[in-house]
Amino acid sequence: MLLIIVMLVSFGYALTHLLRGPQGMSEISADSASGYTAAGELTFRYDLTGVSTADRKALTILYTQAAKDAFEIFHPLMHFDGRINLYDLSSSPETRLAIDPVLFDALSRCISAGSRHIYLAPVYRVLDDLFFSADDTEAAAFDPLENAETAEFFHSAAAFANDPAHVTVELFDNGEACLHVSDEYKAFAEEYGITAYLDLYWMKNAFIVDQIAGVLAEHGYTKGLLTSHDGFTRCLDSSGNDYTMTLYYRKDGHLYTDTELHFAKPFASAAIYSYPLTDRGYADRYYTWRNGRVTSAFTDPADGMPKTALPELILISDSHTAGDLALCASQYFIADTADTEGISALLSQNIWSVRWEDGAMIRSGV
After folding, report:
1. Residue 187 pLDDT > 90, yes or no?
2. Verdict on whether the full-model pTM lies above 0.85
3. What residue segments make up the domains of the chain, in order of their start?
4. Strands, E, within 274-359: which ranges?
């Protein structure tokens, strides 16, 4: 059962921890000697009460390998020897590939949800340039609201991405997958130098925390809390330990804490914001203009435009994965208008929600 404590105090902008666990929780870091891993985008805390030094070392090794695997599996721009990852599938149209089972599961969930966001890779590459721009003058070339040619490209790329007749992933019972791309889309891609068609982008870390959580649980490590710096969480602990999630909202340009959710059972969550919430990590999924306007990574496949129908949306469930919640959130968060009734109705699917309207918290199920 979730309990809510309403705080409503001014907080500021430099946030680091959105969740905390009981005494005895320690942060587990991946071994930096292992090279690139997904751990740089995550915080993993584990209750080490009574855990031996040898078991802690084993946990660190396991977490490091799982984070390394996740980094390679979901990478949209690079091949890694020894595995067939998202990039391999994305850059090899009309080729059946025995992709990694973790990737197969993630794509299966996307397809089952009817999501077309994974096909927006060409738009995401331009947004990358926008988010890493040094100033508004540089950024203007990559923003569809500032540049007519960019807007035309976004609209055209989205028209292909949103149409299964032009691009789709086919999954086979034997674990293979095949990316199908129409000749018309291939010609468009060649014209614009597009070499890859798939990217989980802002949803990637939701599937990464699911993958790592699954590995940890499989090996008996369940007294932990894994959260990404962009708001996706898996809590594995069923021991009755108390965990706290602090939620934030913005009003009149100021950030406030409003809610602490207390829980004592496993759960997943997706906390999605239309503005950069923290200075740790995912400010690079946003660009803030001098006039205060924010362009975010949340892009609508219907027209290719970055947009958000709500400033904040938090979804929580004890029966759905973080990936499922990300896919669910995309239907309501990335839209021209907010379907508030639809969000509240998610309770029938055992998905709890928190959002704000003019500083007033509106919750369902929590």
Report:
1. yes
2. yes
3. 3-72+221-274+310-364, 86-199
4. 286-288, 294-296, 312-317, 352-357
